[in-house]
Specification:
Helix content is 28%, strand content 28%. The chain has a four-stranded mixed beta sheet with strand order 1-4-3-2. The protein starts with a strand and ends with a helix.
Amino acid sequence: MTPIETLDRPPSGWFALDVMRKKARKWDWVALMVDIDPDDLRNCLGSRRVGSCWVRIPGKHRNLDAAWDALENMMATRH
């Protein structure tokens, strides 16, 4: 299995599946992103390979909500 690539910016048109801490008890966050709408993900399993990557979320965020907000702001500027 190939390791998932880590990017500094979200790819245009990709979707965030989850946001999590990069390391436990730290303020650095990453997002797991895929190249297909999560609502369609179940339908495409087995028919094609789903692209995925980690995206660094810039800044230090104290909680999950703040990290999600930062990611949403990054994605809004990419579309």
